[in-house]
Design brief:
By secondary structure, the protein is an alpha/beta fold. It is about 50% helix and about 10% strand. It has nine helices and five strands; from the N terminus they run ααββαβαββααααα. The chain has helices at about 10-40, 40-45, 70-90, 105-110, 135-150, 160-170, 195-205, 210-225, 230-240, and strands at about 55-60, 60-65, 100, 120, 125-130. Strands 1-2-3-5-4 form a five-stranded mixed beta sheet, with helices on both faces. α3 (about 70-90) links the parallel β2 (about 60-65) and β3.
Length: about 250
């Protein structure tokens, strides 16, 4: 009988190399996930609400698991009213952000929130604090997501326009007069408004009327340009590659 073929030593070595490589890759992946969770808890929370103790109240809406029936009703009513407000303004929604809603400050801090009432995260999710559990704040943050969903070109939108539009959409009475008035401006802008997010945060923290000025600027532009039709035209031009500054003055 011919001698049995010798088993190649290369195969076990190759398996060991691949096993070690996969193990190293797994360690790096876990480290990356942990790093994101530590550095950007809000991103991690909106990606995995259940990992932060939130449960799905209804499709796309996540809250604490121990809400009372009254709290559940309040959350649902707020979501419905805010959704309707955004839908009415835009004539239909193209976005469907997940909503992470906290009724306690402990919950909001746990998912990465700070002193704000609410915040839009990565243009796909919205986090609301117990101070932001109302139609105005919810629709304001949902407006950010809707606008960025519609601007598919990735065009830069000045922060003053983004925030001013969100105030208009949300019908925020702190910064705009009622629709029954001729001019809804409470504080007309007297100088160019902040363009970048950093500039906006810095200015708004020092000047409480920054939101009112941006809302005034946007509302006047909308009324001059056909309201929703003007906004739709603006978005079409942005998606066609035209710069914002050439379309809307600051």
């Amino acid at each position: 009988m011919p001698p049995a073929p010798k088993r190649s030593r290369a195969l076990p070595r190759a398996r060991k190399i691949w096993t070690r490589a996969l193990a190293a890759l797994a360690v790096l992946l876990v480290a990356a996930i942990v790093g994101v969770a530590v550095a950007y808890p809000s991103v991690a929370a909106t990606t995995c609400p259940g990992c932060y103790g939130l449960t799905e109240l209804r499709p796309g809406v996540y809250t604490e698991h121990d809400l009372s029936p009254q709290q559940r009703s309040q959350v649902s009513q707020t979501v419905d009213a805010a959704t309707k407000r955004v839908d009415t303004f835009y004539g239909g929604r193209k976005s469907s952000p997940s909503l992470l809603i906290c009724t306690t400050e402990e919950c909001y801090q746990h998912i990465g929130g700070h002193q704000e009432r609410g915040i839009a995260v990565l243009d796909r999710s919205v986090m609301l604090s117990p101070r932001g559990l109302d139609t105005v704040i919810a629709s304001h943050e949902m407006s950010h997501v809707e606008l960025h969903t519609r601007v598919t070109s990735g065009a830069e939108i000045p922060q003053w326009f983004d925030e001013g539009l969100a105030v208009v959409v949300s019908e925020d009475p702190r910064y705009l007069a009622p629709r029954t008035t001729g001019d809804r401006c409470l504080v007309p802008p007297t100088a160019p408004l902040p363009v970048s997010l950093d500039e906006w945060l810095s200015t708004a923290s020092k000047e409480p009327n920054t939101y009112a000025k941006a809302a005034c600027q946007v509302d006047r532009w909308l009324r001059t340009n056909g309201d929703r039709q003007g906004l739709e035209s603006l978005i079409q031009h942005l998606n066609a590659g035209k710069p914002f500054d050439s379309l809307v003055p600051n």
